[in-house]
Amino acid sequence: MKDSFRSMLERRANDLSVRLLKKSELGELSDFQHGDVVDRTPVDRDLALELSAKIRNEIKACLQALERLDAGTYGICLVCGEQIPEKRLRVLPFAAKCVECESLSAHAISGQYAPVRLSA
Question: Are residues 46 and 57 both part of a single domain?
């Protein structure tokens, strides 16, 4: 099972790296990063930069998941220490938190009320 996740993570990180490199080679990112004026609106620039940041963050998450695989902690929630369900890892192989802890984190970041986690 761990080998299939390793393969998924390596493939995803590689695909994203290639995608980011192609965007850079096409000038979609480099024009914006150097402040050149191009025939695009500020919204286009913002979207391109946001997309590149999301791609970089996902690559980083994949590499961190591979490190957890090597350390033997892959599939264990970084917050509560419980096992992350395999179903979640199949959908989001770089998940570092279980659904409940991810939800609590998202609420905390957004400033919304987050219910207290109860022990079973």
Answer: yes
